[in-house]
Amino acid sequence: MMKSKEVICVQCPLACRIQVEMAEDGTISGISNNRCKRGAEYAAQEVTNPVRILTSTVSIVTDDPEHPMLPVQTSAAIPQKLLLEAMKVIANTTVQAPVHYDQVLIPNILGTGVDVVSTTEVLH
Ligand code: SF4
Question: Ligand 1: which of 7, 12, 32 to mutate, most ligand atoms within 8 Å of CB?
Fold first, then answer.
């Protein structure tokens, strides 16, 4: 039996409501209502292996009272199913100032090939 799933594309402000048809074994048999190829690729990814950018904070050893925690994010999207585990790794991480903008703090988190980087700088 075929299944149909609707995916709202977030790749541009048009927010197309894309229909994805899937066979029982999960393979995609059709994609419609997308206005461009980018949307089809996004919808296929969403139904097979959804990914998200993870934003969070890590503890930082600093004498800057304005930054008791350091904001971080993944340098690219990681599989949604790994978000909780990645949050645990981030929660157990403490870094030492100075930290620069976009500095890699946790390389290759959970073997994803994606780094966790700082989104601000704390210089002392
Ligand atoms: S399918 Fe294409 S046009 Fe539609 S929202 Fe996605 S990126 Fe935009």
Answer: 12
Question: Of 33, 48, 63, which residue is a domain's last?
Answer: 48
Decide if 42 is inside a domain.
yes
Instruction: Find the residues whose C-beta lies inside 6 A of ligand 1.
Output: 9, 11-12, 14-16, 34-36, 38-39
Residues 6+ apart with CB under 8 A from 22: 2, 3, 4, 5, 28, 29, 47
Question: Does 123 map to a domain?
Answer: no
12 CA: nearest ligand 1 atom: 8
Query: Does 2 have pLDDT greater than 90?
Result: no
Instruction: Grade residue 26 by pLDDT with cuts at 50, 70 and 90.
Output: confident
Do residues 86 and 33 share a domain? no
**Nearest protein CA to atom 6 of ligand 1, as residue:** 39
Number of domains present in the structure of the chain = 2
pTM of whole model > 0.85? no
